[in-house]
User: Which sequence fits this backbone?
């Protein structure tokens, strides 16, 4: 379910962008860090057509989350700037 302010859960609670990032990282981990397999699982979970590139943008989002395994550093160079 989508609203002007973002996405809501089936019970009407806000599901934030950072929660999507963290969920994507969990899916990526669960499916063996394989981008194509994890993206296919993400599509099944959310019933959408997310591309592998878009899914990886979530996984590699340059902000740390509770389930990050270093992916946030992939998107940030040594100088701290986004690549």
Assistant:
């Amino acid at each position: 379910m989508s609203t002007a302010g973002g996405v809501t859960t089936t019970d009407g609670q806000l599901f934030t962008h950072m929660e999507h990032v963290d969920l994507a990282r969990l899916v990526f981990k669960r499916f063996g860090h394989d981008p194509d397999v994890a993206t296919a699982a993400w599509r099944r979970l959310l019933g959408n057509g997310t591309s592998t590139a878009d899914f990886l943008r979530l996984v590699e989002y340059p902000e740390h989350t509770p389930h990050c395994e270093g992916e946030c550093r992939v998107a940030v160079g040594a100088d701290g700037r986004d690549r």
